[in-house]
Structure formats: C-alpha cells, structure tokens
Amino acid sequence: MHALTRRSVLRGGAVALPFAGLAACSAEDEQPTQSFVETDSERVAAAEEARSPGAIREFQLNAVESEVDLGGLIVPTWSYGGRVPGEPIRLTKGEQVKAVLTNDLPEETTIHWHGVQLRCDADGVPDVTQPAIAPGEAYTYQFTVPDPGTYWFHPHVGVQLDRGLYAPLIVEDPDEAADWDLEWTVVLDDWMDGVTGTPGDVLDQLTSGMGMMDHGGMDMGLMADGHMLMGASSDILGPDAGDVFYPHHLVNGRIAADPEVFEAEPGARVRIRFINAGGDTAYRIALAGHRMTVTHTDGFPCVPVEADAILVGMGERYDVVVTLEDGVFALVAEAEGKQARGRALLRTGSGEAPAADFAPDELTGHVLAYEELEPAEEVALEGREPDRVIDLELTGGMEDFDWSINGKPHDLDNPYAIEEGERVRLRFVNGEDMWHPMHLHGHTFALADSGLRKDTAIVLPGQTLEVDFDAVNPGRWMVHCHNLYHGEAGMMAVLGYLM
Question: The pTM is what?
C-alpha cells in the first residue's frame, strides 16, 4: 500500500489520512485510532473567541403545542410561540444570540441555526453537538453571528420541522450600502400537519414497505396515495420532483385562499428574502409583472443577475431586489412538479387581486440556474487546490426508502476526518433518479466550478456536485439531505475535525 500525500482523498467511506507516510485503510480499521475535537473543547471556544463576540441580544423562545390560524384554516400543530412562522430574530453581524428555548412540547427537541458559521456546541444536533431538550426543560443557546445574511432556525429532531417549528434569522450588515427602500421576508412551506395527518404519519407510510416502484419515471400523471404523491416530475429536477402530498402550500404561514398582502408605493425598491422551510417541496417563485434581480444566495452576496423565476430547494435562501410597478400583483410559489401553488399579494395601487389559481407568465420564463451565478468579489474563496477530497455517494431509492450516504444510514458515530486549516472538497455523487438538497452545518462552501457561496445546494439526478470549504470551525458537523424524509430515513453523516 502506498503512502498518501498531503492532498488526501476519501473514496466510498474510506478514511482520508492527514499526513504523508500513513497507510490507507478502511473507516472501520482507522476509526479506533482517531481522535476528534469534542464540542466542548478549548478549540471550539478559541474559534468562537476569534469571532470577536459583540453585544449580547437576548431572546425567549417557547416550543408549544397549540392551534394556529393559517388564514381561516385552524390547525393543531407545534410552533414557536403559537405562530407560523415564528417571530423573526433580527440582529447585526458580530452580535451574540442568547436564546433560551423552553420546551413545552410532548417530546424532546432542539434548535439548529441553519447556515450560521457558529460555535459547534450551539448547532442543535442531538447526540452530535448536544443532548436533546426534554419536555418541560429549557436550554440556552449562545453564539456569535459572524456573517450578515438571510438564515433561519428549526429543530433537528425527527420530522418536527414539517410542523410549524421554524422562523427567520436575519443578520444585518451595518456597512452594507442599501439600494432598496423596504424589506419583505418570505417563508415558504408545504403543509399537511393537522389537515391530512402528521409528519410522523408520512414517515410511517414512507418507511413501511410501501412497495412503490420507480414511480417518478412512470407515465401515469399525478396521483396521490394517502400521503404519497406519485408522478411529480420536473424539467429541472427530473422524473421525481417530490413524494409527499401536501394539501396546502404556505407563504408566510397563510394558505393561497387567504394570502398575506404586502403594501408599498409604486416605484419602491423592495429587498425580498426568500426562505424555503418545506419538507419535500422545491418552489419555483415568480412575481407577476416583474423581473427579480438576485443579489444573495444562502446569505452571501453574488454578482447581481436578473431572472423571471427562481427555483428554491428545501433549506435554500435567495435575496432579490425588485422595483415595483403600479397595481396588485401575485407572488406565486409553485410547488415544482406537484401542480400546486402558494401565494402572497403585493399591492401598490388599486385593482382587483388575481384569482387564487392565477399563474403568472414569469413562472415559465427564464428560471435562474446555478451556472449563471458567481460570488461577489468580497466573499469569493481564495483560489486554492483542495488538500482533501471526500466522496459522498447519495444512495438509496423510493422502493425501500433506504436513503443513505456511502451506503451507511445515519452514520453519525464515524466522522469523516478533516484537519483544521485544510481546503476540503466534498463530491456529492448522485447516481439515482431523485434530486437531493445537500446541507453542510457550520460552514459556507463554494461551488467548485463557479465559487458561488452556499450552504445548501441541489444535487440533480445522475449528477456530481463538487463544493469546497475551508476547515476553520473546529467540531463535529452534520452533512445531510434537507429533504426532511430522506434525512430522517438515513441520508446524513458527520465531518469531524481531528485533534
């Protein structure tokens, strides 16, 4: 066996060794001899101190079980403070969040602060970064927010996210030259809780040997079977755009029949922050009568690009700026491949609102693609070859619902080894017919072909997506599919910083 060079490579689950002169071996062989940074280590504390923590902003959060009004539809669900979405947390970069979560749910929970490069022990992943919070208990999260942008928070326990447990986290940049007049945060969600069942019911049907064949490729049209949706296909996402039937698609917590109305003056420039909090649905978003200028992806600025519509996968965020025309306009979030829509209204003048099923021409216009985007100069990673490459094969299928990474479901106890200071490349290899929105905790990566900064990215069927990040945040970090049911079935793993 030959010695590895400093540019180590991880293939198919084998451990990438950090130093030349060590023999390659399997993860099972190597794991007992490795030691990883613990979440409560001095290195985690030192990384937090290097962020120069600023003023502390205190927040009280209650995870509760209650009825919630979704626009005339009253449903029993779980939420933060009895509202969906939860009250936004807004603060300035460099400040510290001090959030006390009181768990008034009938089961344990946590909070994950999606997209934030925070200290590892605040990341909210049970059995990886913290113990889960028991019913009736409280837990304090305290961390610095180092980067401005659009983020959000949600639980990381089971399928709780597919209830109403989510809210925006907006980090402002005091040095940013604002060229907009107003802001509108728009949270999208697919909803079934308290209407057709619960997320637990969905997972039970998915994992109970439902015997579904490669239904995405079958020419049978769209069909629902209990909680399952068959035949949802997309010209972008492929033959299987999603598998869960949702009776409603929400925009800022309201159903299409009774939408939120955002009011402004004609000619105003509005910064819209889109967040997809859905469990199984990508949304194609368009604003009737307008083009959108995309300015940020997953919180980080990009070179501005115009588009008629944007496709947003679960966990992704996009910021856009729009100059408003005079009238009443539908902001439509089409559930990609599912023949259903959510909507809000934007009103700058008099006029009748369009019908609930109105589909603007922009939905079938120019849809933004990753390859059109490049990072703003100030956030581009320095050009550098990766020191380590890790192959993460996205495996499984709908028939057995056996989703995993490198054939290992829920592989949380055997971290893929990385070394602090390395440039790490992740290669998401997808040989299946299903697309996957892959999310890395604690870091923002760059798409290897363009440098676009993101933390959640769509890996299309039959494609390989390569992303790079700098290993500058010690700890243990989950990488997983943000299709909630794929992740819960097993498509999750952990990266660990070596001691």
Answer: 0.92
Spell out the CATH class of 8-34+383-497: mainly beta
- Is the model's pLDDT at 103 over the cut of 80? yes
Question: What is residue 15's predicted lDDT score, i.e. its pLDDT?
Answer: 34
Mean pLDDT of 312-326: 98
For 177-379, CATH number out of 2.30.30.60, 3.90.1800.10, 3.30.720.210, 2.60.40.420 equals 2.60.40.420
3-state secondary structure the chain: CCECCCCEEECCCCCCCCCCCCECCCHHHHHHHCCECCCCCHHHHHHHHCCCCCCEEEEEEEEEEEEEECCCCEEEEEEECCECCCCCEEEECCCEEEEEEEECCCCCECCEEECCCCCHHHCCCECCCECCECCCCEEEEEEECCCCEEEEEECCCCCHHHCECCEEEEEECCCCCCCCCEEEEEEEEEECECCCECHHHHHHHHHCCCCCCCHHHCCCCCEEECCEEECCCECCCECECCCECCCEEEECCECCCCCCEEECCCCCEEEEEEEECCCCCCEEEEECCCCEEEEEECCEEEEEEEECEEEECCCCEEEEEEECCCCEEEEEEEECCCCEEEEEEEECCCCCCCCCCCCCHHHHCCECCHHHCCECHHHCCCCCCCCEEEEEEEECCCCCCCCEECCECCEEEEEEEECCCCEEEEEEEECCCECEEEEECCCCEEECCCCCEECEEEECCCCEEEEEEECCCCCEEEEEECCHHHHHHCCEEEEEEEC
Q: Which two tokens stand for residue 25?
A: 């071996």
pLDDT value of position 399: 85
CATH number for the domain formed by residue range(s) 56-172:
2.60.40.420
pLDDT at position 31, please? 45
Q: Tell me the average pLDDT across 476-497.
A: 98
Q: Where in the chain is the domain with CATH 2.60.40.420?
A: 8-34+383-497, 56-172, 177-379
For residues 391 and 11, the answer to whether their CB atoms sit within 8 Å is: yes
